[in-house]
TrEMBL record:
Any Pfam family hit: TOD1_MUCI70
PANTHER family: ALKALINE CERAMIDASE-RELATED, TRANSMEMBRANE PROTEIN
InterPro entries, per the entry: TOD1_MUCI70, TOD1_MUCI70_glycTrfase_dom
Limits of the TOD1/MUCI70 glycosyltransferase-like domain: 129-447
Protein name listed in UniProt: TOD1/MUCI70 glycosyltransferase-like domain-containing protein
Domain of life of the organism encoding this protein: Eukaryota
């Protein structure tokens, strides 16, 4: 608003010390703050903003200074000290606010009735993928237990990046003689999953989130009939949600979500377990042609068929994911993960050093040879066609999360660039769209609680 701030756009701050002789103006400009009363008003607004974001500022290492009482005489029954930054001007208080991110308009088709899959859409790179189902290797001292991701050697890992007919690790690997790989679901759920052609899926493990149902009024009858809406839960989460009134009906549904309970979780780290449905939808839904993944912190507000038409069919893409809203270089993402203690620092450094030794460079937006608009994705929303290259990329990305840290934003660019580098004559059509478009598709919430980061790799 060109230097002017409207008091109506900020949280209300109720002061116990009334100032009857002063009425707040409707708007004010920092350059016009001449009187003491106006400065006090600006400080009140700034403090209200700071109070709302106090935990975020503290998490970023913000140091607070003086403890002061504002406006009027101190009343021990009502007053409490408010910490404000030392040497801060009124303008500095406003500048401490994190930049807001907004949605943007998307030119969707008017209705699902007007869309049709292009005849030549699936004319992508062709090859056949098979998957290792049992780990027949003789386990070493350091590989004493079966592993859901298998025990892939570095040589096997390197070979798997070639887009060719091959059998590769892609999760769901059983130990020798074992009945299950982990991530077990009931037989009736397997039958239902095998029938899905178009899938929208999400998951909550470890009671880490609330259940957010897709906005039924914004989903077409066609999609309600033809799209599988799958929510994976573990038993702990199902119990928690049931206690909050979210109880599946006779058809195992809560709203549009078909609830599928996962037992025998493959990882102790709930975040790593969540990467299974995030990346391996082509394995969980073997008959599916398209899938949309959304994080449990989101509520879907857009018809999935309109999403597929716009981000895949219209752009001729087989994989779509948005860029990160703030960061675009893996170097920045590494520093942020360490600063916020998102994962064991040594494990992050080991992964980052490995990637640099294998050719990962800093993101340079001025380089015309840069293959992506950003090297850091916002991985909470993924749209896929289940083509060979899309499936291979998903397996490779999952294998990086399985081998290194569960912070998939660290491994995205490396995996994509290595796949492209090793297959120069086999294109992979990835659409990295704008973050504002991602925000237009969903309503964003905060997680109920974040799982604790692993203390060891």
């Amino acid at each position: 608003m060109h230097g002017k701030f409207s008091t109506s756009s900020f949280p209300v701050f109720h002061s116990p010390w009334p100032s009857p002789e002063f009425t707040a103006p409707a708007t004010f400009s920092p350059s016009d703050l001449q009187s003491r009363k106006e400065i006090q008003l600006a400080q009140l607004v700034g403090l209200a903003i700071e109070a709302r974001a106090a935990s975020e500022v503290a998490a970023e290492g913000g140091a607070f200074g003086l403890k002061v009482f504002f406006y009027g005489e101190k009343d021990d029954n009502m007053s409490s000290p408010v910490e404000v930054p030392q040497k801060s001007s009124v303008i500095d208080i406003f500048r401490k606010r994190k930049p807001k991110h907004y949605s943007c308009d998307i030119a969707f088709a008017k209705s699902v009735e007007y869309i049709l899959e292009p005849e030549d859409y699936l004319n992508f790179t062709k090859f056949s993928l098979q998957y290792i189902e049992e780990d027949g290797k003789r386990l070493t001292e350091h590989q004493s237990e079966p592993h859901f991701g298998g025990h892939q050697t570095l040589e096997e890992r390197e070979e798997s990046f070639y887009a060719k007919n091959q059998t590769l690790n892609c999760g769901f690997v059983k130990g020798s003689g074992a009945k299950s790989s982990g991530y077990d679901v009931d037989e009736k759920d397997k039958i239902y999953m095998n029938s899905c052609v178009i899938v929208v899926s999400s998951c909550i493990f470890g009671s880490s989130d609330f259940l957010r149902r897709p906005s039924s009024k914004l989903i077409s009858e066609y999609s309600k009939k033809n799209v599988c809406f799958i929510m994976f839960l573990d038993e702990q989460t199902l119990s928690k949600l049931s206690s909050e009134g979210h109880i599946p009906d006779e058809s195992d549904r809560i709203g549009l979500w078909r609830i599928i309970v996962v037992r025998n979780l493959p990882y102790e780290d709930m975040r790593r377990t969540g990467k299974v449905p995030k990346f391996l939808s082509h394995r969980l839904f073997p008959s599916s042609r398209y899938s949309i993944w959304l994080d449990s912190k989101m509520r879907l507000n857009t018809d999935p068929m309109l999403i597929i038409e716009y981000f895949l069919w219209r752009s001729g893409s087989e994989y779509a994911i948005s860029n990160h809203y703030d960061r675009h270089c893996v170097w920045e993402e590494v520093l942020q993960n360490k600063r916020l203690n998102k994962y064991n620092h040594s494990a992050i450094e080991e992964q980052f050093t490995f990637y640099q030794s294998d050719g990962l460079t800093k993101f340079d937006p001025s380089d015309p040879q840069t293959q992506l608009p950003s090297y850091v994705p916002e991985g909470s929303f993924i749209i896929r066609a289940h083509t060979p290259m899309s499936n291979l990329f998903s397996c490779l990305w999952f294998n990086e999360v399985n081998r290194f840290t569960s912070r998939d934003q660290l491994s995205f660019a490396y995996t994509y660039l290595k796949l492209r580098r090793m297959n120069p004559d086999k294109p992979f059509f990835l659409n990295m769209f704008k973050d504002c478009e991602r925000r237009a598709l969903v309503k964003l919430f905060r997680h109920r609680e974040a799982p604790s980061p692993p203390t060891t790799p």
